[in-house]
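Batch 3, record 17
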Amino acid sequence: QKEVEQDPGPLSVPEGAIVSLNCTYSNSAFQYFMWYRQYSRKGPELLMYTYSSGNKEDGRFTAQVDKSSKYISLFIRDSQPSDSATYLCAMSEEDTGRRALTFGSGTRLQVQP
Amino acid sequence: NAGVTQTPKFQVLKTGQSMTLQCAQDMNHEYMSWYRQDPGMGLRLIHYSVGAGITDQGEVPNGYNVSRSTTEDFPLRLLSAAPSQTSVYFCASSLSDRNNQPQHFGDGTRLSIL
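Prediction for the assembled complex:
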């Protein structure tokens, strides 16, 4: 079993829909949680970063962490065709920094105009 | 602003050949790293560097070498290419290795080993 699980999709939604992207994990020591967006033929870019549990909002994006369920989510409100990309979750333990970052395999999102 | 530049963008090699993937950044970042991305596997760390002259192994270092003689450059060398090394390789840089520092990725090198 992988340490971080992510549904590969593709997830296809109409423009304007609310999108929910999710990751589950098995390592209860994970404390840092990140979401990256990766457009086709490009490198990933950091979207959201959260530490421990709770919610974090940035514009149309909300990241949610539920450590009791070992489950993290990224919500995209009013989705746009420009949101079409692969979304990667990533996480690490306390104080291990980026050297021990574990990535999910990504969910491909398609927003239809 | 160039950011992180990777060359070449595409490469086809024969088994046993060696090559160097180039990575350069112009942001004066101390931390640089190499990842490989394979279908269904996510990004996996190959090697990383916390500054000029300092490198260390990541999760999947076998078959790869790195060096960091300057802050700007972090080349990745394949010593004797194998089909299992067919992948997309990403170089990334950030101010430090702390998770709250945004990582800047290059656009990748797509490598096929025949």
